[in-house]
Amino acid sequence: MAISPNVDFVAGAILTATQQNQFPRGVMSFTKNTTAGTVTTEATQITGTAFTAVANRNYRVTYYEPNIYGAVSSYIAKIKNGEKVLNEGTAYGETLGYPTGVSCVYVGTFIGG
pTM, whole model, 2 decimals? Predict the structure, then answer.
């Protein structure tokens, strides 16, 4: 395991820098796209989301598209690092013309820096 689990503390124990670095970091980066668009084949919705990763630390990347309209029966959302697809999610439209949503999550490590 890249990061050891938290330990229980006892009275008088000293919190070390190593233990402190094991706590979650919170939100590292946030991007929101407010531009509506029509996708017929493939479109990049968000680019330039960047943060400085620490090697061997797990990160969670979440993509959520709440309102998809269209004339196709399925939609695929992908989380990519460059050209490498880290994860993807598929949504199926119940009725054409009504909105649907799709989300996907990736949990893993990145190269530090």
Answer: 0.66
